[in-house]
Design a protein that fits this description.
single chain; about 200 residues; mainly beta; five-stranded antiparallel sheet; 1 helix; 15 strands; about 5% helix; about 50% strand; globular
Length: about 200
Protein backbone atom coordinates (compact mmCIF):
# COMPACT_ATOMS: atom_id res chain seq x y z
CA UNK A 1 0.00 0.00 0.00
CA UNK A 2 1.42 3.37 -1.05
CA UNK A 3 1.79 5.95 1.70
CA UNK A 4 0.38 9.42 1.16
CA UNK A 5 2.95 12.01 2.17
CA UNK A 6 1.46 15.14 3.77
CA UNK A 7 3.19 18.53 3.83
CA UNK A 8 2.87 19.19 7.55
CA UNK A 9 5.00 19.41 10.65
CA UNK A 10 4.25 19.08 14.33
CA UNK A 11 4.64 21.86 16.86
CA UNK A 12 5.42 20.54 20.35
CA UNK A 13 4.43 22.61 23.38
CA UNK A 14 5.33 21.57 26.91
CA UNK A 15 2.37 21.71 29.32
CA UNK A 16 2.11 22.18 33.07
CA UNK A 17 0.98 18.85 34.58
CA UNK A 18 1.10 19.75 38.28
CA UNK A 19 -2.71 19.62 38.58
CA UNK A 20 -3.01 16.40 36.60
CA UNK A 21 -2.39 14.07 39.54
CA UNK A 22 -5.22 15.71 41.52
CA UNK A 23 -7.88 15.39 38.80
CA UNK A 24 -6.77 13.65 35.56
CA UNK A 25 -10.16 13.89 33.82
CA UNK A 26 -10.61 17.55 34.80
CA UNK A 27 -7.11 18.38 33.55
CA UNK A 28 -7.84 16.91 30.11
CA UNK A 29 -11.21 18.69 29.95
CA UNK A 30 -9.44 22.06 30.31
CA UNK A 31 -7.17 21.48 27.31
CA UNK A 32 -7.71 23.38 24.03
CA UNK A 33 -9.52 21.76 21.12
CA UNK A 34 -7.82 18.76 19.46
CA UNK A 35 -10.33 18.40 16.60
CA UNK A 36 -14.00 17.87 15.82
CA UNK A 37 -13.81 14.41 17.40
CA UNK A 38 -11.71 14.05 20.55
CA UNK A 39 -10.73 10.49 21.47
CA UNK A 40 -9.00 9.35 24.66
CA UNK A 41 -6.69 6.39 25.27
CA UNK A 42 -4.82 5.64 28.50
CA UNK A 43 -2.59 2.79 29.60
CA UNK A 44 -2.48 2.04 33.32
CA UNK A 45 -0.91 -0.66 35.48
CA UNK A 46 -4.30 -2.38 35.67
CA UNK A 47 -5.50 -2.08 32.06
CA UNK A 48 -6.56 0.08 29.13
CA UNK A 49 -9.00 3.00 29.40
CA UNK A 50 -10.80 4.37 26.34
CA UNK A 51 -12.89 7.52 26.21
CA UNK A 52 -14.00 10.61 24.34
CA UNK A 53 -14.88 14.24 25.01
CA UNK A 54 -18.63 14.73 24.95
CA UNK A 55 -20.11 18.18 25.59
CA UNK A 56 -16.86 19.22 27.25
CA UNK A 57 -16.81 16.23 29.61
CA UNK A 58 -14.37 13.33 29.42
CA UNK A 59 -16.43 10.12 29.36
CA UNK A 60 -14.28 7.04 30.01
CA UNK A 61 -14.90 3.33 29.54
CA UNK A 62 -14.70 2.56 33.26
CA UNK A 63 -17.94 4.52 33.84
CA UNK A 64 -19.75 2.22 31.40
CA UNK A 65 -17.95 -1.14 31.54
CA UNK A 66 -16.18 -1.20 34.91
CA UNK A 67 -15.84 -4.99 34.72
CA UNK A 68 -13.19 -4.69 31.98
CA UNK A 69 -11.94 -1.11 32.25
CA UNK A 70 -10.02 0.20 35.26
CA UNK A 71 -10.78 3.70 36.59
CA UNK A 72 -8.76 6.68 35.42
CA UNK A 73 -6.45 7.27 38.40
CA UNK A 74 -3.12 9.07 38.54
CA UNK A 75 -1.67 6.49 40.94
CA UNK A 76 -1.82 3.67 38.35
CA UNK A 77 -1.50 5.68 35.14
CA UNK A 78 1.51 5.21 32.86
CA UNK A 79 0.45 7.37 29.90
CA UNK A 80 -2.67 8.99 28.45
CA UNK A 81 -3.61 10.76 25.23
CA UNK A 82 -6.47 12.99 24.17
CA UNK A 83 -6.30 13.15 20.39
CA UNK A 84 -8.01 14.24 17.20
CA UNK A 85 -7.28 15.35 13.66
CA UNK A 86 -5.81 18.67 14.80
CA UNK A 87 -3.64 17.74 17.80
CA UNK A 88 -2.79 15.35 20.61
CA UNK A 89 -2.38 16.13 24.31
CA UNK A 90 -0.08 13.57 25.88
CA UNK A 91 0.71 12.84 29.55
CA UNK A 92 3.27 10.31 30.75
CA UNK A 93 4.77 9.23 34.02
CA UNK A 94 8.41 10.08 34.68
CA UNK A 95 9.41 8.63 38.02
CA UNK A 96 6.99 9.99 40.62
CA UNK A 97 5.90 12.94 38.48
CA UNK A 98 3.96 13.51 35.28
CA UNK A 99 5.12 15.29 32.16
CA UNK A 100 2.78 16.64 29.49
CA UNK A 101 2.89 18.16 26.03
CA UNK A 102 0.63 19.17 23.16
CA UNK A 103 1.51 18.05 19.62
CA UNK A 104 -0.30 20.15 17.02
CA UNK A 105 -0.18 19.98 13.23
CA UNK A 106 1.17 22.98 11.35
CA UNK A 107 1.22 23.31 7.56
CA UNK A 108 4.73 23.25 6.11
CA UNK A 109 6.28 23.02 2.66
CA UNK A 110 9.59 21.84 4.15
CA UNK A 111 8.36 19.01 6.40
CA UNK A 112 6.54 15.76 5.70
CA UNK A 113 4.41 13.21 7.51
CA UNK A 114 2.37 10.10 6.73
CA UNK A 115 -0.46 8.20 8.40
CA UNK A 116 -0.35 4.54 9.37
CA UNK A 117 -3.33 2.39 10.38
CA UNK A 118 -2.89 0.16 13.44
CA UNK A 119 -5.20 -2.85 13.80
CA UNK A 120 -6.97 -3.16 17.18
CA UNK A 121 -8.40 -6.20 18.95
CA UNK A 122 -12.01 -7.05 18.35
CA UNK A 123 -13.77 -9.75 16.35
CA UNK A 124 -17.17 -9.73 18.04
CA UNK A 125 -19.55 -7.32 19.73
CA UNK A 126 -20.53 -8.36 23.26
CA UNK A 127 -22.54 -5.38 24.49
CA UNK A 128 -23.38 -1.76 23.67
CA UNK A 129 -24.07 0.93 26.24
CA UNK A 130 -23.97 4.75 26.43
CA UNK A 131 -21.95 5.21 23.23
CA UNK A 132 -19.41 2.47 24.04
CA UNK A 133 -19.14 -1.05 22.67
CA UNK A 134 -17.58 -3.94 24.58
CA UNK A 135 -15.70 -6.01 22.02
CA UNK A 136 -13.88 -9.31 22.36
CA UNK A 137 -11.27 -11.03 20.27
CA UNK A 138 -12.49 -14.54 19.51
CA UNK A 139 -9.10 -16.17 19.31
CA UNK A 140 -7.43 -14.59 22.33
CA UNK A 141 -10.37 -13.76 24.58
CA UNK A 142 -9.21 -10.16 24.93
CA UNK A 143 -11.84 -7.53 25.72
CA UNK A 144 -11.93 -3.73 25.70
CA UNK A 145 -14.63 -1.06 25.55
CA UNK A 146 -14.20 1.35 22.64
CA UNK A 147 -16.03 4.70 22.48
CA UNK A 148 -18.00 3.75 19.36
CA UNK A 149 -21.48 2.27 18.93
CA UNK A 150 -20.83 -0.73 16.70
CA UNK A 151 -23.42 -2.89 14.99
CA UNK A 152 -23.37 -6.67 15.46
CA UNK A 153 -22.09 -7.09 11.90
CA UNK A 154 -19.42 -4.36 12.13
CA UNK A 155 -16.70 -6.80 13.18
CA UNK A 156 -17.56 -9.60 10.76
CA UNK A 157 -14.70 -8.73 8.45
CA UNK A 158 -11.61 -9.69 10.45
CA UNK A 159 -10.28 -6.95 12.70
CA UNK A 160 -11.79 -3.71 11.31
CA UNK A 161 -11.13 -1.46 14.34
CA UNK A 162 -8.35 0.95 13.46
CA UNK A 163 -6.21 3.57 15.18
CA UNK A 164 -4.62 6.15 12.89
CA UNK A 165 -1.07 7.11 13.86
CA UNK A 166 0.69 10.05 12.18
CA UNK A 167 4.47 9.87 11.77
CA UNK A 168 6.53 13.02 11.20
CA UNK A 169 9.68 12.72 9.11
CA UNK A 170 13.12 14.27 9.22
CA UNK A 171 16.17 13.96 6.98
CA UNK A 172 19.80 13.78 8.00
CA UNK A 173 22.82 15.21 6.20
CA UNK A 174 23.13 12.00 4.13
CA UNK A 175 19.55 12.17 2.86
CA UNK A 176 18.35 9.34 5.07
CA UNK A 177 14.73 9.62 6.21
CA UNK A 178 13.59 8.71 9.71
CA UNK A 179 10.53 9.12 11.89
CA UNK A 180 11.25 11.82 14.46
CA UNK A 181 7.85 11.95 16.19
CA UNK A 182 4.48 10.17 16.17
CA UNK A 183 1.01 10.93 17.49
CA UNK A 184 -2.51 9.47 17.51
CA UNK A 185 -5.07 10.98 15.14
CA UNK A 186 -8.32 8.96 15.04
CA UNK A 187 -10.25 5.86 16.07
CA UNK A 188 -12.41 4.35 13.32
CA UNK A 189 -13.86 1.21 11.75
CA UNK A 190 -12.83 -0.10 8.32
CA UNK A 191 -15.81 -0.95 6.16
CA UNK A 192 -16.05 -4.24 4.25
CA UNK A 193 -15.15 -2.30 1.07
CA UNK A 194 -11.91 -1.14 2.68
CA UNK A 195 -12.90 2.47 3.39
CA UNK A 196 -13.52 4.29 6.64
CA UNK A 197 -16.81 3.67 8.40
CA UNK A 198 -17.70 5.99 11.25
CA UNK A 199 -19.94 4.39 13.85
CA UNK A 200 -20.65 6.49 16.89
Amino acid sequence: MEREIKRITCQVEQLNATEFAVNPAGWFQKQPDVGDEAWFLAHADDGVIWGRLQDGQLVTSDTVFSEVSPPLRAITLQQARLFGEKAEVRVWREGNRFQACRLEDQSSEKCEAFDEQHILWGTQVEQRKDGFTLVADGRQGLRHAVPLTLTDSALNDGHPLRLTVRHYLTYDEYGQTRIVLSRLVALWVRSSQGGQQNES
